[in-house]
Amino acid sequence: MITRTVSKNPRTTRGDLVNDLQRAGTKVTKPTISNTLRRQGLKSCSARRVPLLKPVHVQARLKFAREHLDDPDEDWENVIWSDETKIELFGKNSTRRVWRTKNAELHPKNTIPTVKHGGGNIMLWGCFSAKGPGRLIRVKERMNGAMYREILSENLLPSARALKMKRGWVFQHDNDPKHTARATKEWLRKKHFKVLEWPSQSPDLNPIENLWRELKVRVAQRQPQNITALEEICMEEWAKIPATVCENLVKTYRKCLTSVIANKGYITKY
């Protein structure tokens, strides 16, 4: 009964199970429940926070992965990947524990859906390609469409030049409303920028997420004590990320697409 209950609802607590068993006429302690589940290969873990996926998102992700699975590596090397992220000074996110087996941390039942940018202290926009990191800037005000276009105007082409992108390079950004606004699309069209069609709710498909993780680890190790130091350290550490790290992220992109297909469109490890 214990195993069946947590398999059906991984968020069941040990207290819930004690009460359920007591109502069924069996007295069991919490440690016994933990030991029983451990023997079944289940352990209590913090639920991962992932974007909420509707069926339409799952289908769009599968379509993207299947359409691009056989693209040559050279195509991905000619993409400039971009995104925004928030970095907290002393951030601690609340957690929720679930019972799960090894390697099942990203199954939808074991995750907590999130909306992007749920909190933090500074917001950054950055980009990169297989040749290395592009520009990184701090967004000091609440970003709107006009500000986003200004960021692209001042940073996208200089990044492409610095990275020595080949002719016909492709720009990637997600489907944030600021990115997909008519004025932004028109601006990109007038500048003759090719834009990669992107499935919504797919941060795991963007290799820049790995660079954000790399950046946050590097920044945390330096323990900035205020916002000014946080911004300075972010810029310094971003510039130090080796080009080989960027190259390897892009080289393994087909593996990411394969994982999406294997996971039936749901969020994957990458």
Annotated CATH architecture of the largest domain: 2-Layer Sandwich
| SSE topology string | HHHEEHHEEEEEHEHHEHHHH
Q: Helical amount among residues, as a percent range?
A: 40-55%
What is the 3D shape? elongated
The total of helices stands at 12
**Name of the top-level CATH class of the largest domain:** Alpha Beta
Radius of gyration equals 22 Å
What is the H level of CATH, i.e. the homologous superfamily of the largest domain? Ribonuclease H-like superfamily/Ribonuclease H
Low-confidence stretches: 115-119
Strand order of the largest sheet: 7-6-3-8-9
Please indicate the percent range of residues in DSSP E strands (runs of 2 or more): 15-25%
Q: What structural category arises from helix and sheet content?
A: alpha/beta
The third-level CATH topology of the largest domain is Nucleotidyltransferase, domain 5
**How far is the first residue's CA from the last residue's CA?**
35 Å
What is the residue-averaged pLDDT? 90
Largest sheet: 5 strands, mixed
Tally the beta strands.
9
Number of individual domains: 2
